Amino acid sequence: MKSAEIRTLFLNFFKSKNHLIVSSAPIVLKDDPTLMFTNAGMNQFKDIFLGHGKAQSARIADAQKCLRVSGKHNDLEEVGVDTYHHTMFEMLGNWSFGDYFKKEAIDWAWELLTEVYKMDKSRLYVTVFEGDKGDNLAFDEEAKKHWMKYLPEERILNGNKKDNFWEMGETGPCGACSEIHVDMRSDEERKKIDGKTLVNTSNPQVIEIWNLVFMEFNRKADGKLEKLPARHVDTGMGFERLSMVLQGKQSTYDTDIFQPTIKELEKASGKKYISENNAGEQEKVNIAMRVIADHIRAISFTIADGQIPSNTGAGYVIRRILRRAVRYGYQSLNLKEPFLYELVDILTKQMGEFFPELTKQNKLIKKVIQEEEQAFMRTLEQGLKRIEASCNELVAQKKKVLDGEHVFELHDTYGFPADLTALIAKGYNLEIDESGFDKALEEQKTRSRKATAVDTGDWIEAGVQTQTVFTGYESLEEKSKIIKYRKTTLKGKDQYQIVLDRTPFYAESGGQIGDTGYLESNGKRIKINNTQKENNLIIHFSDTLPENIKDTFTAIVDPLRRIHIADNHSATHLLHAALRKVLGTHVEQRGSLVSPDYLRFDFSHFSKMSDEELHEIESIVNQKIRENIPCTTQILPIEEAKKLGAMALFGEKYGDTVRVVTIDKNYSIELCGGTHVKATGQIGYFKIISESALSAGIRRIEAVTALGAENHIHEQIETLKQASSALKNPKNVVKAIQDMQQQASELNKQVEKLSREQGQQIKSALINKKQSLGSIIFIGDKIDIASADVAKDICFALKSEIPNLFLILGTEISGKANLFLAISDDFAKEKNWNASALIREFSKEILGGGGGQAFYATAGGTNVQGISIAIAKAKQWIEQNK
What we know:
By secondary structure, the chain is an alpha+beta fold. The chain contains 25 helices and 37 strands.
């Protein structure tokens, strides 16, 4: 049974049980500050479980894209090492929101597995929750009773809180669960050892394939459980594991989900994947191919959903995954050129029909991955040079161990795993300090945890629990009551989160930042610093609480700030349409920031924009502003909105009904929940202030409008006036600057000529100062020059003229101490001397550091008085080692 058929059978089965089949939510989460990625099938339904939203249907089924690489659910380091863990995976799930419960969930799970998928019933085991005294929870008799209809009691096993009580995180929805396990061992092995003794023991052949979670509770911050408003069912079955079982494989990587990618890797590397051979070099090849086959899916799907690799947040996680894949290819498959991007077409062909975002974004995904690979390959080469230099230095110092701090630096800065550093060090007969590395790694993790640790208290109810009504489209003031609030602490600072029954405050969403303002009652105000959305809950942030929580408040949004935000948000719609008009319809929004001060717009495009294109886009946007076009909004069914031509963005999850913002039906129609101007004339003026590359295939425009544009133009004119004044107010400022540049160029040529002449004189003087130390010619002196380039030229000239040379020069340039060390190539090769290692030792005298090549190195420091001491130290070293 092919994997695509397995997925289809699952969805069709639950469709026959009156479930609404919904599409996967994006793998990258946009409006949930508690999570970076969708890490479980239930993420898109959290607000329903918590009572903050309403389900499209009481019964739902889906195939959800998930990613587990950070936080509590972190499988990254196991991926590839074993044969069944993954970063990105599909979770097949069926859901009941206050409808059916344990009986139906168990009945249908058994029916699907044994009657539709035809699994061998004798190989199945289930677990039920044994209860927990600490949480005052009883044994799950109900689940056991239903399983007794299908399985003998000896194959219904008790599970503890760790295995059979599912929790989303430290807080949130949770409940007892019942897991279904399958024994894939041979009949001979099954006769020797009873399968029930291997359940939940990490045996790779006796594994969990389906978890039926009976969601009844909410875990509060104080650890206590409270009943949810309704009982729900949340099931999750790993698509990859299910395919492995149904295809009779011993590893998920042997299924048709991963084999096409692995076959392509075999062609590229010339190495074979032999899953039955888990020893020596073959196992390294196997692990590398599993890592790459897994990681290319995670990378491709996250890029398709709008997350570009970067140095922060979710982007950094994706960059780490990508670099891990490249590293394994480089280290174990000898793939020294970019290769990952070439696997995207295989993945698209395989999964693009069910996940159309892969097909639509294929070109962009490949471009982004290729550029990231090229950049990391360069970093790897730099890291290799650093490792080799460090090893040479240790050999020169007759040491045997590469310290853990240095190993960690290579890991942290260049992406080198400790085992790769150890492998290279072994070639120099060196070992690495593994315990020191582990300590440095743990210290970094501790720092990271402390930097982001937020102590969040439980919600305290203050009024009638209801869903917040947002009134901010119509008004900036609203009479409100506080429903609930909670206290949070970050880095020792207390803050309060407040939920209102009615609010005009727009919560940060879709690139638009949250509103600020205040709550007023009885002449007293508390400031609202920000507004965000969490699990469909609009949360107002304040440093203080009102004296009387039960008061009726006037919630007032900062009106001027909101106006400027609306100016910039509407301008992003005008900009988007103009970009598509000028550059082509391949342009799609890839991210945005709408603040009161400026707007930022990221979009797909593969080349730098010309000045002419930028000017044309500005002209189009400003023409639309002058036309003073009304900005209209409608709430429509999603399909009707699409028929109108409304633009939906990949990576966004839309409901059955959507808000459509139209600025001239022939120019801009977009799905958008943000706040906008009544007519485009309010924007005043639009000015692009920068256009740059964000990553491969992604450009970024920053622009200002209204007062921001006015201030920007004023600043530019003022700068021009100051430049003109500094140039004595010439008639043509540009020509005056060009004349100055020409004069400066001519002066630089004269300075270079004089420096070369000075260098020749210094070189001749140094030759006269040479000393013979045995067979070594030593030159060491402090010289007076103004350029490090001149010193370098002198070093190379002397090195080429004088055999067996050991040369060290010191100089003061701009108040800083500098050392230059050059040694004959024969010393580097035959004596194994290393200039880079030596200069690090000598530069301690100038309180600095440096490096370079084996035959030439430089160093800089702050202690000018140490130059003479460093030169004397070099001479002493030669006398000891000649």
